[in-house]
Amino acid sequence: MRKNQKYTQAEMQASITKWRESGLTQHGYCNQEQISTSTFSYWVRKLSREQMPERSSREVVQSFIPVELPKPEVLPVWQIEIGYPDGVQVRCAAGTDISIIKALIGLSNV
Fold first, then answer.
1. Of 21, 32, 75, 96, which alpha carbon lies 20 to 30 A from 48's?
2. Neighbouring residues of 108: CB distance < 8 A, sequence distance ≥ 6
């Protein structure tokens, strides 16, 4: 690949498609094609973001599923735990006010 020149989106996409079909790791593919690994990783992230449909914050709220919690008398020392795919966890003690939980997970205006 050429150095210090801009690539078109079509060239980026073609290279990503070729990489996926190759079965190689990104690093292996980049070595083979003489592309900077950091540049290629940027292409993958950039095109992935552009191909994802935009989601409003309202849609995210609607994707929550209802959860039934046991009554405190049944399980006296439980806590509420909310885990996100990126590893972030929110933990609250039993009896925490729902408005505090909403604020912690970014739903304070709901």
1. 32
2. 99, 102
Packed helices 37-51 and 9-22: angle between N→C axes, nearest 10 degrees: 100
Residues 6 or more apart whose CB falls under 8 angstroms from that of 37 comprise 26, 27, 30
Tens digit of pLDDT at every position of the chain (110 positions) = 555 667 888 889 999 999 989 988 999 999 999 889 999 999 888 888 877 666 555 555 556 677 777 666 654 455 778 787 887 777 777 777 878 777 777 765 54
Would you put residue 34 in left (φ > 0), alpha (ψ -120 to 50) or beta? left
- Rounded CA-CA distance 70/65 in Å is 16
DSSP labels, 49-107:
HHHSPP--HHHHHHT--------TTTSTT-EEEEE-TTS-EEEEETT--HHHHHHHTT-
